[in-house]
User: Fold this.
Amino acid sequence: MEVYNLSYDEAPVIKTELPGPRSRIALNEQDMLETQSRTYTRAFKLAVDNARGSTVMDLDGNIFIDWFAGISVLNLGHNNPIVRHAIEEQLEKIVHINEVPTEARINFLKTLNSVLPKELKDHARTMFTVTGADACEAAISLARHVSGKKPLLPLVGHIMALPGTLWVQQQIIITGIMPEYPQGIYTTFHFLIHIDFR
Assistant:
């Protein structure tokens, strides 16, 4: 399978003003239908039609070099044929199930264990999370459990915006105001110490 030449060769190509007319419509519709919790569409004003390798094409036919290439598994490239083949093969068996062992899950766990540093190999357990923010919160919970210490030292301006309570604390520090929630429900940690390293 050829995987080294996935991207649009001609990238970047700009055919319209940015954002293009179809992208503008999609962005406006998204604003009307989705919460303001999004961050990427504030900085990158486009709506994606398709993607190949490290390039994306918007709804207006403009082609960009992809800035998301490091997020999730996209460092393997959009529409990577090896990844697509593995997904299609798995779709024939089962699409989704929580925590129950499957052949694919056990194979992944064994492979992950095999590449751990020698101090951890066969002495570690894996915890699956949905997002990087979930992984950070799990790491904080584990550190607090192992150390027995409650205080946290979040750094203002860090790159990983955590969901939930830590996100609320971060927004208060950065903006000086409590973020608005439609239901007015939020929680906070009372044992946070903050340091601004900017």
In short: Confidence is low (pLDDT under 50) at residues 157-190. The two ends are 46 Å apart (CA to CA). The longest strand covers residues 48-52.
